[in-house]
Amino acid sequence: MATTKAQDPAGTPRRWAALLFIGLAQLMIVLDATVVNIALPSLQRDLGISDGDRQWIITAYMLAFGSLLLLGGRIADYTGRKRTFLIALAGFTGASALGGAAADFEMLLTARALQGAFGALLGPSALSLLTVTFTRPKERAKAFGIWGAISATGGAIGLLAGGALTDYLDWRWCLYINIPIALIAAIGGYMVLTESRHAGRARFDVPGVLLVTGGLVAIVYATSRAESDGWSSATVTGLLAAGAVLLAAFIVVESRVPQPLLPLRVIADRTRGGAYLTVGLAVIGMFGAFLFLTYYMQVVKGYSPIKTGVAFLPMVTAVLISAGAISTRMLPRLPPRALIVPGMLISSAGMLWMLTLETGTSYAGGVLVAQLLLGFGAGMIMPVALNYATHGVHQDDSGVASATINTAQQIGGSIGTALLNTIATSATADYLASHAAQGANPALAKQAVVEGFGAAGAWAGGILLAGTLIIAVLMNTPRPGRDAAEDADGAEPLLVRT
I need a surface site. Which of 288, 324, 380, 462 has the fewest CB within 10 A? Predict the structure, then answer.
């Protein structure tokens, strides 16, 4: 199996321009996961969407995106990563325009599903392009440091952009904002990206596609229903069981077919497997922080959407400093767990800090501390995990390896958000029930909400701590050799045991 390339991207200075346009695409994907959330109350009123249907604005995107990622990665490998990247950008642009112009709920729902489907093409093709473009270890570390910073801060940027666009323009601009970003990325990508693809005729594993798509749809849909129905409901447990059975069948099929959708060698490697697990666990903390800190600032503290977005800027700054000053410099010199384990411990401390929040806690003593801890931790985790997610993988499999890390992020985010939201809601209800004798009053309601956020933060912190122990044992990859840092041929770095 060989990968065809028009020219070696490691030997051209255009690779840094390529990083700019690939990074714009990734920013758009991550931004879109949160930018619509802040606009949800406004668009719900404008289009007359019921409370029962509003979740579908988020769920439609999640279902299409999460369930089609592995197929998107294989399409990129076989039909050309640059070609898939450009087609996905065009489709995402059209879907965003359709959503911004939506006249009713059905039109908006269709647009969100299309965004998710084209996002499932765009995410793997973008990361695989980055993988095959930057092969020299030092430059690869810098590129993935930037990529990790974009991935970790995109959600907070989305909250800021969503608040500003909703306050000063209209909720429709939360969708229209994708159009100029996608056009710039598409035009620039067409000019500077180098095509690469799996040689030979494209053959897709149809049974694998059906099984993994069905399994992921069942799991993502179950987690979205868990927020309203509860984890113990027959619908949720049935969907989770069905998803587990379908994914188990998928693994069996993949071990037997000649050209699998997901070669098991991709996930069986301890380094890559550890990277996928790291991202899946890390987004639980990040998504939980975005959700609960947003509601804490708006519902408890009374911040406006734009003020809430601005209040997230310290987290963005912390990620950029951590990813740029620590991860990028240390990545070529240290084994991955030497950065990931401290990063997860710091992120865990950020979630546990939510236990200190009260209705009267100042921004500096509460939200700011939690944000800085989460930001510094994420900046140490994401660049390293994203780099090692394609560690040692053959270029023919770079698309599906990239899709797997996106799938881990999507599944971890959806399950984590639903789980933590259920915990917070239950803790809030228990607090209100135990203080029912005081009667209903706004102060009690706010304190109940804070109690719920603290309980969810404690669970998230515990999950991250447990994940830290697993990663410390599982991800035993040694540090890169010193000579590999100057490798001019773009080979995988030599490894030196510590």
Answer: 462
